[in-house]
Structures are given as C-alpha cells and as structure tokens.
Amino acid sequence: MSDLPLFPRSRFPLEVDPLYYESMARNAGYQWIAGVDEAGRGPLAGPVVAAAVIMPQGVTYPGIKDSKQMTEKAREKSFCLIHKEAVAVGVGVVSEKVIDDINILQASLRAMKKAISCLTPAPHLCLVDGPHGIPMSLPQKCLIHGDSLSQSISAASIVAKVYRDRLMCAYHEQFPHYGFSENKGYATPRHQASLKRHGPCPIHRTTFSGVCD
Fold this sequence. Notes:
The protein is α/β, with parallel strands linked by helices. It contains 8 helices and 6 strands; from the N terminus they run E-H-H-E-E-H-E-H-H-E-E-H-H-H.
C-alpha cells in the first residue's frame, strides 16, 4: 500500500477539471486509473458497499458528480451511463455482521479491496476517497472529499450509493417495520422509533449506538 506524492498542491485546477488527478496519474505513466468510494458507513443497518470504476481516458461526463449532491433520479440515470461507458466496474459488499466484528472503517476498506479485485482490466493506480489507504499492494492516492474532486471517484460514489440503496429496498420487503426503502438504514426518527418498538432485526449493526440501547 502506498499513498503516492504524484500531485502538486494547487487550489485551482481541482475546481474546474474533474479529470485533473486522472491526467496527472496518466502523465506519470499509469494507464488504468480506478476511482474508489464507499456508501453506508453511517447507517444503523445493512452492509457497507464499495465501488471501483475505471472510466474512459480523457472523457468528461457532466452528469457524474458527488452522489450526495444528486437526486435519486439523477443517480439512477448516471448509474446506467457509468455501466454503459466505463472500462470496468467492480462492487464489493461487506455485511453488517462483519462490520460488527471488525469495525466500520476496516469493513469499508475490505469492501473497497473486494471492489478493486473485481476489475478487469486490473487498475494500475487507484484514486481513493478519504484519508485511509486500502490494505493492498497497489499504487494509490487518497483524496479527502475525492468524490467532488475526481470524476472516477464520483462515478464510484454513484455506483456504490445506487447499489446499496437497491439492497436496502430489497431488505424493506423482508423487514417492513423499519422503513428501509426510505431511510436506507440511517437513524431517522421513524427508524429509531421502530427500533424502540420492535428491537433490532437481523441486518442491524448491533455495535452501533442506538441499535441495542
């Protein structure tokens, strides 16, 4: 694992060029650049999901941005676009039971590693959202707020978010009391009230505050 010092400090290119980091990496000799991000670190229920995406070189897609800044409809549209246009897409899922066993940070990194391992072609370098490197022997650059700085990470954030939201909607059919189709496992007032009334269900994270209190 290595966090590469490839990129000069700058306040300006990041605001106007979503391919800034990808271009710098390719100029340093890396061909396949994967953006990596996760969804579901904060919820009280369900798995954490990570995605790794290699987008075509030098192509900007205006509809792809930080998934948190998009509507559900826009995310679904971009999700389909990414799967159509991407060189490769990988998804990694780590269950709530594993989250309880090893903690959410380690589970998130494990999901990212799984997502990267699904990519064909394998990436030469990964741009990773957040400050924590993935425990694998692959060149990588960690970017805080990377989902708003790099198109590749933005694409990964969309894939992870949509994939996880669909999983939580499926879980809603099994456990309708908790409103998972609406809250996606987050601690909304309705979700918390349902926990007090019914107790946790099999997909709740029992080590998270508020679940078994």
